[in-house]
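Re: weekly structure request thread

Next one in the queue (104 aa):
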Amino acid sequence: MTDKDAPDATPPELKFLKRLVTVLTVVMIAGLVIIIGLLVTRLTVPPQRQLPEVALPDAIALPDDVRATAFTQGRDWYAVVTQDNEILIFDRLTGTLRQRIRIE
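Done, posted below.
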């Protein structure tokens, strides 16, 4: 008798594990292909909306002995965070100091 004629002596638990590993491998490969496809399609599409260009002030007149550590701005104001833990809020049009906030 040859091996081809012999009955299959593989236990049912091992057959189940072989099928499970095969199915999980196929699912993992399909998932990887889908993720790569989504990345390629999302990254190659140009953005539909561009943010407007923000104009920065040419110069900011800070009070004496004040050193800036950060800067942020809104539509009609800009703010400077100082080394002394203060936020100085300036008017965008006139450049005058609107408000001074102490950070505690």
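Residues 53-104 form one domain. The radius of gyration is 33 Å.
Next request, please.
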